[in-house]
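Summary of Year 1 activities. Much of the first year was spent building the evaluation harness for sequence design. The harness presents a backbone, in tokenized form, and records the residue chosen at every position. We chose the following record to illustrate the format because it has been used consistently in internal testing since the harness was completed.
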């Protein structure tokens, strides 16, 4: 089986991540004299990385965010230091910092909308959530 047939077979098996890097990895394997198992594990890890990247992109697109370019990794959590933040009971591990602020905001929104927030001790009653 030559490289063209191999690429066609990989496309048929829906292994596009391997197809994209196959030639590069083959040259790398020849240059470094890689063992077969090392080459195979590298190709599989490339495929897994490609799939996780596509999954993240697909979920981001499906979410239809109003500002698609804004993400948590570039969010300015210090934009309003004078804001009065209530400290609700947090789930285990979340006590301070940006995650606590985000959790308190989410909890207040969910309680306003009548949803229960897991791990907070709030429960459902007939007619919605009540204090």
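For this record, the design step produced the sequence shown next.
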């Amino acid at each position: 089986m030559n490289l063209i047939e191999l690429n066609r077979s990989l496309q048929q098996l829906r292994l596009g991540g391997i197809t994209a890097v196959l030639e590069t990895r083959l040259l790398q394997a020849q240059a470094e004299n890689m063992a077969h198992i090392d080459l195979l594990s590298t190709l599989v890890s490339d495929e897994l990385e490609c799939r996780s990247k596509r999954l993240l992109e697909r979920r981001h697109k499906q979410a239809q965010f109003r500002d698609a370019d804004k993400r948590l990794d570039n969010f300015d959590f210090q934009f309003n230091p004078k804001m009065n933040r209530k400290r609700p009971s947090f789930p285990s591990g979340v006590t301070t910092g940006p995650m606590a602020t985000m959790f308190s905001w989410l909890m207040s929104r969910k309680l306003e909308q009548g949803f229960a927030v897991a791990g907070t001790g709030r429960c459902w009653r007939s007619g919605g959530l009540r204090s």
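The chain has two domains: 3-63, 87-131. Quantitative recovery figures across the full test set are reported in Table 2.
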